[in-house]
Amino acid sequence: MEIMPVVLDAMPTNQLLIILFQNIVNKMEEKNSFSFLELEAYPWLLTEPIRSEKLRGNVIVLYAFQMLCPSCILHGSPFAQKIHQTFADKGVKVIGIHTVFEHHNVMGPDALETYLAEFRYSFPVVIDKHNSPHPIPDVMRRLELQGTPSFLLFDKAGNLRSHYFGPVDPLSFGYEIGKLIAE
């Protein structure tokens, strides 16, 4: 999505507010849609590619991680696996996004497959793309993530309801998931 440039002097205030509001709405809609996973991330590991329409009607936990991130290794990835095991039969989908923003040469798909197998993770994982010279991968940039681990919690309609960076309190997060399941 591109933000429309606006010439302030030549435009009435109410028209300016409408354009600014529409830009904000467009950005929110873009963030609340999973179609970016189909365009900006590949390959999928531990699953066939997941189409965005298959996610509707489910609570979605999007887990952004790097396999060499200490907090991901100690907290994030085991927690994502626990969510996957606990809630998979209750309409909750966990999707891991391996979003590499450092040490690119040692965190390729083969190393990631080994990492997932060694730790026996079974939630689907997709690799974030780098389609620009920018060091931050595409999905990470689109979702404005600060780093890893990050957990994003989406309701059944695909609306972003919570966003966490760093270790997450399991009890509070489980409570939030339970509320979204019940909606």
From TrEMBL:
Origin superkingdom: Bacteria
| Molecular functions (GO terms) | antioxidant activity; oxidoreductase activity
Pfam families per the UniProt record, alphabetical: AhpC-TSA
InterPro entries given in the database record: AhpC/TSA, Thioredoxin-like_sf, Thioredoxin_ResA/DsbE_sf
Q: Which residues form the Alkyl hydroperoxide reductase subunit C/ Thiol specific antioxidant domain?
A: 48-162
The molecule here is called Alkyl hydroperoxide reductase subunit C/ Thiol specific antioxidant domain-containing protein
